[in-house]
Amino acid sequence: MAQLHIEQWGDGDRTAVLVHGITADTNSWWRTAPELVRQGYRVIAVDLPGHGRSPRWEAYGLDAMTDAIAEALPERPDLALGHSLGALLLAGALDRLRPRRVVHVDPAWAAPPDEATAKVMTDALRVQKDWSEERIQASLARWEPRAREHKSTALRRWDPATLDAFDGFGGYDPPAPKVPSLIVLADPSHNVPPPWARKLSERGFTVRAVPDTGHVVHNEDFAGFWAVLQEWL
């Protein structure tokens, strides 16, 4: 199986690995990666299968995608950060990657309540493939222009068949973390609603929300996202 595409920034003494969400690619980290470099990290980000410059597969499954990122990324990074689908895959790869710290950004851990809702959710993502520049600007008005440009490029490269990986997805309930772990949530978060967030906090996760943000927290309010991350780090 062809290797996944990797992007790298900086040459610091510490290593951070980044895993983007569905429909995105490594350019999702266009602001995060340089800031981490300034903090002394060597940053390595991966394009998920069917995303960015990584190969397309004949079929996609969560387990296979998890295996792929575990093989593509270096072991024992000082920091591992995943968003949405990337956070779900990262959670499944933690025992192999063995990072010293972990950040999950609005992780795609919640299962849809029923099949009809699941279809609505996947259909809403699938139609993004055909979004025009005008639709991107209108739908993502709070994003900076460069972030919208990266979204447009990522959508052109994205294989919508990756959505099939979620067929039959029953949700993911993470065990107590083995290393310091931060969950950064949108406000409101549909992936980790408040009752669940409280349980995860009791389980040992640090849980923070960035006020009045949508799912892609680091593009909705980068300053707020970075402030939360910096305080925790």
UniProtKB/TrEMBL annotation:
Domain AB hydrolase-1: 17-221
PANTHER family in the cross-refs: HYDROLASE, PUTATIVE (AFU_ORTHOLOGUE AFUA_2G14860)-RELATED, MONOACYLGLYCEROL LIPASE
Name of the protein this chain belongs to: Pimeloyl-ACP methyl ester carboxylesterase
Gene Ontology biological process terms from the UniProt entry: acylglycerol catabolic process
Superkingdom per UniProt: Bacteria
Organism: Streptomyces murinus
One cellular component (GO) term of this entry: membrane
GO MF entry, a single one: monoacylglycerol lipase activity
Entry-linked Pfam families: Abhydrolase_6 (PF12697)
